[in-house]
Amino acid sequence: MISTQINETALVNQAQNGDRNAYGELVRTHSQGVLNVVYRMCGNKHLAEDAAQEAFIQAWLKLSSYQPRASFRSWLYRIAVNSAIDMLRKEKRILPDAVEDYFLMDPSPGPESMLASTERAELVRKAIVTLPDASRAVLVLREYEGLSYQEIAETIDIPIGTVMSRLNYARKLLKEKLKMHLFSYAEAEHV
Amino acid sequence: MSDHILEQLGPYLDGELHGKSLQKVKLHLTECITCQEEYTSLENLSATLQEAPLPDFPSPEDFASDLALLLPRKPALPIREKALEFGWWLAPIGLIAIWMFISTTNLVSGAITFANSLGVLNDTSTWLVSGSAPETYWSAALGQFGFLSGNNLQIAEMAEAITRITIPQIVWQVSLATLYLSWMAIWWARHERQGLGQALES
Ligand SMILES: [Zn+2]
């Protein structure tokens, strides 16, 4: 296909001049990545779809402010992360405590009760959502999008040292939140 | 045994360590159980995180076509570009305004000069037309040396006076016209390109 050969910079340029088809191509390329990021950020499928749409609308509106010194993906993910945080905040205003309480009130199954993988996945999802915004964004970009520290620094616009400390902090919190389940998981693997 | 390297384990797991710091962590891990355990727990955490599946999201095609319906017509221009765009459309109006201003000034100054020469205005009004009385250095000089005399001198003086007034007028009118035509040409080029872009789009 010809369109895949056109490099991203050219597409971005065309889109900046108002070319909707070029932007559509960029959306197709990055939709799954953005959906993943916002889903991991807010832990809810419908919120994620709304946040992803909002992110792409915002990106279209702000497109002329994009400068190619950062990669387009970094620029886009930054908008996506903020969109997810906003969406979650709005949702919490409408349904206060809906997200956090569910996790906190979850009757902790002891190490003896083995969790089904779907349940474990559910706990992980909720544990991530309860992380502070700043640490959560760094963790999601690293663990789920596999971005390098440099790329994360570029995306969130923070120094690499801060990426490292936020990531350490997020992992520390997650290990505490998931301690029992992690232990049971690890034991299950070694039985 | 050296101090623990707990802070370095995350970067080590993420493949972000190189050179000396990488060697240091590798060496430490061979001899420290505390850090080994911490590293294993990080690996486990990462594996657990990866385990959480993604829901079924719309395909890139579906997502893009849904989004296309929501996108505003054109991306908004930032303020700086808006100002430039505004200035661009203001340019021809500015040129016409300058042309009208200079023409009016010339007309008024011409009328005053004419009135002055008829003696309608008294001396106090001559400041209005200071410098408007055309100088005729060259004709006068030629007359002094006897190259021109009588009618010829008068004709030469008139010709020089007219040239001194009209040449600058022609020059600025032509420059303004050139600027205006350039603006028209650029506008036309931009318009054509936009039309072409839209034609390609549809
Ligand atoms: Zn150690």
From TrEMBL, chain B:
The chain crosses the membrane at residues 83-102, 170-189. Pfam families: zf-HC2. Residues 4-32 form the Putative zinc-finger domain. It comes from the Bacteria. Keywords: Membrane, Transmembrane, Transmembrane helix. InterPro entries: Anti_sigma_zinc_sf, Znf_put. Gene3D superfamilies: Anti-sigma factor, zinc-finger domain (1.10.10.1320). The keyword Transmembrane applies. This is Putative zinc-finger domain-containing protein. It comes from Candidatus Desulfolinea nitratireducens.
